[in-house]
């Protein structure tokens, strides 16, 4: 049997810096990966339809000027998603006229049921675009955001993450708990009460910060919850589970040696006469995406 090839697109440039690690994870998961500069994508937005997965990675797009992921979102809105977002619930920036040949390629990508993962800066971009939470297939209104950490500074640490077993998220299938690093200054998840109620009711919250030893939710306590996110939320998805935004970095746990406790774990495996897995747990998230795409999108 010929294996169906899955193609993944990773936009690069303008301060993004996690593209190679993200590509490595997707390749480990079995995807063919293209790294394309944003300018190249903007000039030929129809290229989106050649891919089943798009990964918006971490970094500091456009220097996080005016807010993390905001300019990236506005550039994508103008060039890939004509009139894609209504951010009246938060703010409205003037949008330059859009040429007629720049259509709704990003919106069509979503409408075709393809997969999007936004990681850290990419997650901030997805929320600024208004793609999530995507209630009632409305991917045009911003009602959630990641904002400044309560601690007032940038956090670079490992966190425990409890996965919501009732979530439809494609990327976290068969994962109950995962440990990943965070690297952000604007990771606090916020929204209004009504939107929060819908996210919880629809089980669109995918992962929550928790104690790495006990698995109990952080209950808003620092540093287990590194940013003050409401309900310890670290990532959310749309109702279909095909669009996922998370602040932790799964691509940064691509090998066992990334784990700060690697030496101790290696000793325990050696003592038990077992071979320690070489692949980092973060790859599971990308493997789930590739397997779903192979079964449903090719």
Structure description:
The protein is α/β, with parallel strands linked by helices and 298 residues long. It has a domain at 6-151 and 235-296: 3-Layer(aba) Sandwich (Rossmann fold). Helix content is 26%, strand content 21%. It is built from 8 helices and 11 strands. The protein has helices at residues 19-28, 38-43, 70-80, 105-111, 121-129, 193-201, 262-271, 283-296, and strands at 6-12, 31-37, 53-56, 115-119, 144-147, 155-163, 177-184, 188-191, 205-210, 233-237, 243-246. It has a 9-stranded mixed β-sheet. The protein is globular and about 55 Å long.
What is the element layout, followed by pairings?
Blueprint: E1 6-12, H1 19-28, E2 31-37, H2 38-43, E3 53-56, H3 70-80, H4 105-111, E4 115-119, H5 121-129, E5 144-147, E6 155-163, E7 177-184, E8 188-191, H6 193-201, E9 205-210, E10 233-237, E11 243-246, H7 262-271, H8 283-296
Parallel strand pairs: 1-2, 1-3, 3-4, 4-11
Antiparallel strand pairs: 5-8, 6-7, 6-9, 9-10, 10-11
